Amino acid sequence: MEQAIIQSVSSLFEGADERNWQKVKGVMGETVLLDYSSMNGNAASLLTPPEIAASWAAFLPGFDKTHHQLFDFKVAENDNVATVHFRGKATHWIENDCWVVEGTYEVKLLWQSDQWLIVAMKFNFEQQSGHTELPALAMERAKMQ
């Protein structure tokens, strides 16, 4: 079961890197409490998978490539509820410039419809490096696509 839980989480980030929004939506519950407040200052929001995918699709394609590296998984499972803590490093490229964001994640999943679905995800920002102006450039580039 632990491997299936980790695979659901990994599929979310793989889908984002592949710009495969169906894959992203396919591992989420009906709603997801998404919390990136430690990085962007915005309050946590309860969103649907299409809302999350649309938000990411309006930003991530502005980069030439992204790569999310996930590691140090710690899984706690209790019946149909699982909690996963892990570290993440996301590298975003535009041409030869890159922006790297690092931190930890806390993800809650529920066993529904014979699969583990993400219902809450909190990112705990630790640091960023590289070309920190790339997100603004990526947003502009994404608008042009």
Describe the protein.
It is a single chain. The protein is globular, with a radius of gyration of 15 Å. It has one domain (2-144): Nuclear Transport Factor 2, Chain: A (Roll). It is α+β, with helices and mostly antiparallel strands. The mean pLDDT is 96. The chain has 5 helices and 6 strands; from the N terminus they run ααβαβαββββα.
Topology record:
Layout: H1 2-18, H2 21-26, E1 28-35, H3 37-40, E2 45-47, H4 49-57, E3 65-78, E4 81-94, E5 97-112, E6 115-130, H5 134-144
Which descriptors would you attach to this protein?
Nuclear Transport Factor 2, Chain: A, 145 residues, alpha+beta, 6 strands, six-stranded mixed β-sheet
Task: Give a quick rundown of the structure.
The chain has five helices and six strands.
**Tally of separate helices:** 5
Largest sheet: 6 strands, mixed
Decide which structural class fits the backbone. Answer: alpha+beta
Query: What proportion of the residues form beta strands (DSSP E)?
Result: over 45%
What is the total tally of β strands?
Answer: 6
Dominant shape? globular
Radius of gyration equals 15 Å
Terminal Cα span: 40 Å
Order of helices and strands: HHEHEHEEEEH
Return the domain count.
1
CATH topology (level 3) name: Nuclear Transport Factor 2, Chain: A
The average pLDDT score comes to 96
CATH classification class: Alpha Beta
Kindly report the spatial arrangement of strands forming the biggest sheet: 2-1-6-5-4-3
